[in-house]
Amino acid sequence: MRARLTGLALVVTIIAAIPLCLATGPGGLSPRTALAALFGSGDGGRVFLVRGLRLPRVCDALVIGAALGAAGCLIQTVARNRLATPAILGINEGATLAVMVWVFCVPGSGLGPWWIAPIGALAAAIVLVGLSGGIGMRGFRVLMIGIALSILLRSIVDMGMSVLAVNHATAVYNWSLGSLLGADFSRLRIAVIPVTLALAVAVALGRRLVLLGFDLTTARALGADVQRDQWLALTVAALLSGLAVGIAGPVGGPVGFVALASPVAASHLVGPGRVPVLVAALIGALIVLVADTLARVIAAPNEIAAGALTSVFGGLFVLWLLYRRTGEIG
Questions:
Q1: H or E element: which one contains 171?
Q2: Three-state SS annotation for 279-327
Q3: What share of the chain is helix, strand, coil (3-state, %, to 5)?
Q4: What was the pLDDT predicted at 106?
Q5: At 60, is the secondary structure helix, strand, or coil?
Q6: Which sequence spans correspond to the domains of the chain?
Q7: 281 neighbors 67 (Cβ within 8 angstroms)
Q8: Residue pair 68/255 in contact by the 8 Å Cβ criterion
Q9: Domain 2-326: CATH architecture, name and number where available
């Protein structure tokens, strides 16, 4: 019941936030006029501002945030570590590297189709498991190898950008910051179907992954196929993370902090004994929605990438987590 009430409260909050986000920024719109413009009422300029420019960003933010929140929840459960996220384990970097490889291999093609990023994310997840000697219950080992893999892949991306043409390097760099500037519905229309299916599988997996809270012997005694569930969870998490990167396409890349904070906040809201994938997805959607709105207006007329903004809060959040667990830093 607590999980359902929390989920319902988050849905209501997101619905209430949408008109506020559509109205925020230049244009002098109120939430009421933004809603009217959303449904085609009012002058053409306001309708274009809301439906043509801001609505695609809102939709992208919600889908990207939900995917990252669910992916973070699955990975933290499998790795048994709150710091394990697609970004920290190198999965996001794998998606970014795949995009850059496409730029190298297909000159003049731009940043490539949306499905390139999920392929890179899956490849990084496979390499991570291979280097870790399997998933098992080795959360700390997976985390450390993931950090090393992330640094390695990021270094390769940086070296690649250093030899790209200036216009391509700038595009890849801006994309990797996680900006939703210039978002449209072209990629979202196609990718929303696999994202929805992956989210449904993730929510169903969450019910089975509860048993991973026990040790390996107890989980198996309770009927869990631990290895299969771990592999499936990691695969779905990599797909969700890659799809989140792919949807943003040439206007945005990995959005930091979301996959880290959403599952932690969801666990506090829902309580122990659950793997709150759906609640984490809703929190992730709300975080990215608010972050992208703030990124549009906080330094107006300039714009800050939403990923850069969330990464600042992410660093503070990690410090808070470490301080909370140890009582001291250092």
A1: helix 166-177
A2: HHHHHHHHHHHHHHHHHHHCCCCCCCCHHHHHHHHHHHHHHHHHHHHHC
A3: 75, 0, 25
A4: 72
A5: helix
A6: 2-326
A7: yes
A8: yes
A9: Orthogonal Bundle (1.10)
Residue type, 143: L
Regarding pTM above 0.85, the answer is: yes
pLDDT along the chain (330 residues), means of 10: 89 95 86 89 86 90 92 88 83 84 69 76 89 68 86 86 68 66 77 90 87 67 74 90 73 65 89 87 92 84 75 74 56
pLDDT at 20: 93
Residue 217 class from Cβ within 10 Å (0-12 exposed, 13-18 middle, 19+ buried)?
exposed
- pLDDT value of residue 316: 77
Q: Phi, psi (5° rounding) for residue 217?
A: -65, -45
Round to whole Å and give the CA distance between 223 and 292. 43
CA atoms of 34 and 42, how far apart (whole Å): 9
Residue in 172, 33, 148 with CA at minimum distance from that of residue 99: 172
